[in-house]
Amino acid sequence: MPRKPIKIGPKIEYLSILDEKGKVDTALEPKLDADFLLKMFRTMLLTRRYDERCIALQRQGRIGTFGGSRGQEAASIAAAMAITPDDWMVQAYREPGVQLLRGWPIDKLLQFWGGYEEGCQVPDGVNDTPIAVPIASQCLHAVGIAWAMKLKGQKNCVLCYSGDGGTSEGDFHEACNFACVYQAPVIFLVQNNQWAISVPRDVQTRSETLAQKAIAYGFDGVQVDGNDALAVYVATKEAVDKAKSGGGPTLIEAVTYRLGAHTTADDPTKYRKEDDVKKWEKRDPLIRMEKYMREKNLLDDKGLAEMEADIVEQIKAGIDRYEAHRDADPLDAIRFVYHELPAELVEQREEFARCLEQEGAK
Fold first, then answer.
1. pLDDT at residue 362, rounded to an integer
2. C-beta separation of 283 from 20 below 8 A
3. What distances in angstroms separate CA 45 from CA 40, 89, 139, 339, 347, one per listed residue?
4. Are 234 and 343 found together in one domain?
5. Do residues 341 and 254 both lie within one domain?
6. Total structural domains in the chain?
7. How far is CA 199 from each of CA 63, 196, 206, 272, 330, rounded to the nearest angstrom?
């Protein structure tokens, strides 16, 4: 018998609507009202200013190690604006703008980076999971939530964030396979920021795109310009509508760049070239979106200045609330591990308490 090629689904598409110079493809431009666009831009700007402030706080010793998101604001926030409060958001650890968009107060975010367990407590009425630092572990949780929705007959979906490094983890692939087998209403949003800490994307995989990994599992994949908020929104909205109508999962690869360090404990100058960073700085999603907003007469110098001032006050208020409640009982590190502490932890807590008493007596 002759060898025959096997046709495996459609080709992977690439989507870009707003280029790095702020020029929009009107044929693909989504029809979004002024309030929606202003909310998107303001949240992106808030995220950038929050990121800058947190790095300063870490350097001052007021929070612990911090993982920034500078350069990835469009990829994360525009996607989140395509879901509703009734949908679920499953995050990794580089989505602070999404948290702020969905109702997390700034002081709650700072509690997490300050080492307080309260920072993992999801606000009441918010359908989000806590920050997940273990790479790609959240993908399995997302599929579980989505499958539960399907079993209950709910017409909602789950938006799950991960990075390019996450696609090198087994958890990601298990989640993709399970999601397609059970046609779970989940969208995997992979923020391809080119680096898994110090490992470049081209060392992680030989695949031409990350989006095409969906093909192996039997569902759709699309690659978008991750610094183009409009393209990210359109791709995610299409995936959301498909998921809610029973069409199953989608993998979206948002091609972006981590302009800052992996965390404040990292020195990216050790493994990447400054010329590459400068090249991506010209593709800054905030600059691009600002040009678009000005072109549509939705933003001017006065409006931007007022927005900046309002954001400064919002961040300051959040920091003040965080620092007003920084006193913590060290015993809480053990107290809330289990509902009922096992005997060995009871012993450890008692020993810890005695040590604290001795230190206090000195």
1. 58
2. yes
3. 9, 21, 28, 41, 49
4. no
5. no
6. 2
7. 27, 5, 14, 10, 36
257 belongs to the catalytic site: no
Examine residue 3 and state whether it is found in any structural domain, yes or no: no
Give the pLDDT confidence of 331-351 residue by residue, as tens digits. Answer: 887 777 788 999 999 999 999
pLDDT tens digits for range 264-311 = 999 999 999 999 999 999 999 999 999 999 999 999 999 999 999 999
Residue type at 173 in one-letter notation? H
In a domain, 1, yes or no: no
Q: Are residues 56 and 171 in the same domain?
A: yes
Catalytic residue among 201, 262, 283, 288: 262
Digit-coded pLDDT (tens) for 169-196 = 999 999 999 999 999 999 999 999 999 9
Residue 116 annotated as catalytic: no
Shared-domain flag, residues 163 and 288 = yes
- pLDDT at residue number 318: 98
Q: Is the pLDDT of residue 361 over 90?
A: no
CA 317 distance to own-chain centroid? 23
| Catalytic annotation, pick one of 141, 258, 283, 288 | 258
Of 12, 189, 24, 178, whose CA–CA distance to 90 is shortest?
A: 189
Residue 37's H or E segment, with its range, is helix 34-59
**Active-site residue among 271, 325, 326, 335?**
271
Task: Please report, for residues 72, 118, 195, 199, 210, the alpha-carbon distance to residue 168 in angstroms, rounded to integers and kept in the order given.
Answer: 20, 30, 12, 11, 10
To the query of whether residue 258 is one of the catalytic residues in this protein, the response is yes
The range of the structural domain enclosing residue 344 comes to 330-362
Q: What is the pTM of this model?
A: 0.92
Q: Is 105 helix (H, G, I), strand (E, B) or coil?
A: coil
Backbone angles phi, psi at 119, to 5 degrees: -70, -15
